[in-house]
From TrEMBL:
This is dTDP-4-dehydrorhamnose 3,5-epimerase. It comes from the Bacteria. Its EC number is 5.1.3.13. It comes from Phocaeicola massiliensis B84634 = Timone 84634 = DSM 17679 = JCM 13223. Pathway: Carbohydrate biosynthesis; dTDP-L-rhamnose biosynthesis. The record marks 137 as: Participates in a stacking interaction with the thymidine ring of dTDP-4-oxo-6-deoxyglucose. Keywords: Isomerase. Homodimer. GO terms for molecular function: dTDP-4-dehydrorhamnose 3,5-epimerase activity. The keyword Isomerase applies. Belongs to the dTDP-4-dehydrorhamnose 3,5-epimerase family. InterPro entries: RmlC-like, RmlC-like_jellyroll, RmlC_Cupin_sf.
Length: 185
């Protein structure tokens, strides 16, 4: 696995070694030993999967302390623009984001540490998306930032009239309006 740094410290692109031949391909999508050596020590406890169609924007989501989560996300089929927003007060990159295209063809994964809001926009007709989380889902701890927060200035690469949101995602406050504080260390 190659680890590629992004513009925000701690948000990393994970690129597996892919072995291709006439039969197809093989790659190791996760190794706790290699992840600990190259990224950080954590234990992933929950895997999630979602299926969505073109124009769906999910996010920007996070879990509030003490149920914060680090995630590794990847696309099995299709294409997304995956976004991680730094919401750690005091961070030199507070309010900034990283956007990476993840596809079923490039097999890239994105590691999103605790203290970040996460979301993605579906760029293909369909997408099969997987999350690996290091803390269990806690519905009482859900949080979110408005996907269209003007201060974040995220280009979701989908025309606004084609964006499909859940009712919950339509109601999130902007980052400035949010009361949740993640500490930067």
């Amino acid at each position: 696995m190659e680890v590629i740094k992004t513009a925000i410290d701690g948000v990393l692109i994970l690129e597996p070694r892919i072995f291709k031949d006439a039969r197809g391909y093989f790659f190791e999508s996760f190794s706790s030993r290699e992840f600990e050596e190259k990224v950080c020590k954590t234990t992933f406890v929950q895997d999630n999967e979602s299926f969505s169609g073109y124009g769906v924007v999910r996010g920007l989501h996070f879990q509030k302390p003490p149920f914060t989560q680090s995630k590794i996300v990847r696309v099995i089929k299709g294409s997304v623009l995956d976004v991680a927003v730094d919401i750690r007060k005091g961070s030199p990159t507070f309010g900034q984001h990283v956007a990476v295209e993840l596809t079923g063809e490039n097999h890239r994964q994105l590691f999103i540490p605790r203290g970040f809001a996460h979301g993605f926009a579906v760029l293909s007709d369909e997408v099969l998306f997987q999350y690996k989380c290091d803390n269990f889902y806690a519905p009482q701890s859900e949080g979110g930032i408005a996907w269209n927060d003007p201060d974040l200035n995220i280009d979701w690469r989908i025309p606004k009239d084609k964006i499909i949101l859940s009712e919950k995602d339509k109601m999130h406050p902007t980052l400035k309006e949010h009361k949740t504080v993640f500490k930067y260390n």
